[in-house]
Each structure stands twice: as structure tokens, then as C-alpha cells.
Fold YCII-related domain-containing protein.
Amino acid sequence: MKFFAVTYEYNPNHPRLDEVRPEHREFISTLNNQEQILGSGPFTDSKGGALIVLQLDEDTVLEDVITIMDGDPYWIEELVQKREIREWNPVINSFED
């Protein structure tokens, strides 16, 4: 498995966020049903944003992850002000097979 950390920065008070949230959650649920999500959720401080951790096949490259995450309705609707995608190496973890 390869792991990728995706961080989103967005305005938590954006007027369209609530409108698009159901589509975003459906997108995340689809990835989760495909066993590609290790965890996903918003940051709880007032700054907004979220962290999504993907678990993907060993042959996955960064461009593949960009393609996957470009399908997120938050991204499509331009609600994400900044997105960062980085491969992550969990040296100590409790979620490997």
C-alpha cells in the first residue's frame, strides 16, 4: 500500500459549502467503499479545511491521486482555496494488514 495525505483549505463560512457538502460526502463515501480512504474529516478549529488520507496500490503515483481528487465536488465547484497532496510513509501505524 501507498498512503497519500490530502489537505484542503477552504472558507468554512462559504455560502455554497453546505449546498455542495452532500455531493462531497458521496464522493468520499465512494472512495471509502472502494477501500481507498484511511480517514477523512474536517479540522475542528475555526480555520476550516480538511484532511483526507488515501490508501492506494503500490503502483500509484502522484498524478493518479491528483486525478482522483479532481473528482471531488468541493474541488470542481472551486470551494477549495488550496489543496496539497503528499505521499506519506507511516513508519509507526496500527492500520497495516
Remarks:
- The first helix runs from residue 17 to 33.
- The mean pLDDT is 93.
- Helices lie at 17-33, 62-69, 73-76.
